[in-house]
Amino acid sequence: MRADRVHAYGAAAGLLGDLLLGDPRRGHPVAAFGRAAAAVERVLYRDDRGRGALHTVVCAGGALAVGALAARAVRSSPAASVALTSVATWAVVGGTSLAREATAIGRALEAGDVEAARARLPHLCGRDPQALDADGIARAVVESVAENTSDAVVGALVWGAVAGVPGLLGFRAVNTLDAMVGHKSPRYRRYGWASARLDDVAGWPGARLTAVLAALSGDDPRGAVRAWRADAHRHPSPNAGPVEASFAGALGVRLGGTLSYGGRVEHRPVLNGQGRAVQVTDIRRAVRLSRRVSWLALGVCAGARLIGKGREPRPVGKGRGSRPVGKGRKR
Q1: How far apart are CA 270 and CA 266, in angstroms?
Q2: How far apart are the first and last CA of the chain?
Q3: Closest by alpha carbon to 100, among 143, 136, 145?
Q4: Is the dihedral of CA 64, 68, 74, 79 positive or negative?
Q5: Residue 93 half-sphere exposure, CB side, CA atoms within 13 Å?
Q6: 71 vs 33, 75, 78, 84, 183, CA distance in Å?
Q7: Cβ-contact 70, 49 below 8 angstroms
Q8: Which is nearest to 88 in space by CA: 33, 36, 37, 38?
Q9: 3-state secondary structure of 328
Q10: pLDDT > 70: what percent of the chain?
């Protein structure tokens, strides 16, 4: 079986596994990586960019190495290669957990239980829940669904298509490191700089693909493109900007504005200012859009890999009636 088909079958099986099973409550591979990264941090930490860069190299490089060794170990068996790709895809994508958490918060808000929604919000994002009313929680959920569609699903599929199992594990490692040390707290402002910048680079293609697919599959394609072009560059994140702006336009809502992280208030630009305020019912719409984008991304990434492999030049000497070049004679 060709390597491109192995990857396509494995990625599809892995995404289906995530849809059916979600993330395990205990023993998740990403959690194990997080514990290992925290152990490395305890050894290396200094308030210094160089130490932070070494931390990033050790952790992300380790994930890449594990992926490369595992892929090499099963490369002679197509069935084992498909199984490895499917397990790796299931381990690194988190679309189902994202949808479940967002839906649970939406149900609590629909029932009028704002306190329950506040209690669940930290499972989804780092906002200060006590500073938010029901509409503020709904907006935070929609923004998190948009951003995490790229981070938790599409970005991984893109790098899996580019680099196979090492790409899947490497992308998730980089994204996890950014979540752990990439924020601008006093402790990580310098130490987490390398992880944050690497995550910006790794997330760039997935974010743009997510924005494109949200525009194509949303309720208002023109509005999504208009919001992306007008507002994405105003967002402080180079990758969250296009994604959130495209989701805002596709859903016809306004995102951005004042928010609070860890007691720190930020005033972010409004995305799709001509849209209406987010309502609780928009959470379900955002989840549906996220799922559509995820499956379309699988099709795009698998198709691009198949097309790319199909256009590779045939090795010299492999055609019918030809004789190998360089066999038995000096050049």
Answers
A1: 12
A2: 34
A3: 145
A4: positive
A5: 39
A6: 18, 6, 11, 7, 32
A7: no
A8: 33
A9: coil
A10: 91
Q: What is the torsional sign of CA 220, 96, 295, 85?
A: positive
Judged by DSSP in three states, 17 sits in helix
Q: How far apart are CA 176 and CA 151, in angstroms?
A: 10
pLDDT-wise least confident of 31-40, 63-72, 74-83, 316-325: 316-325
Token couple for 116: 């329950």
Indicate the pLDDT class of residue 330, thresholds 50, 70 and 90. very low
- pLDDT of res. 157: 98
pTM for the full predicted model: 0.90
pLDDT beyond 60 at 132:
yes
Q: Which two tokens stand for residue 122?
A: 């930290």
For the record, the structure tokens of 173 come out as: 């490692």
Range list of H helices, 111-220: 114-120, 134-149, 155-181, 193-217
8 Å CB contact between 193 and 52: yes
CA–CA–CA angle 220, 283, 89 (5° rounding): 90
For 134-157, what is the mean pLDDT?
Answer: 96
How many beta carbons lie within 10 A of that of residue 299, not counting itself? 13
pLDDT of residue 328: 42
Number of C-alpha atoms within 13 angstroms, CB side, residue 277? 8
Q: At a CB cut-off of 8 Å and minimum separation 6, what does 52 contact?
A: 181, 188, 190, 191, 192, 193, 194, 195
Neighbours of 26 (CB within 10 A): 6
Question: Considering the chain, what is the average pLDDT of its residues?
Answer: 91
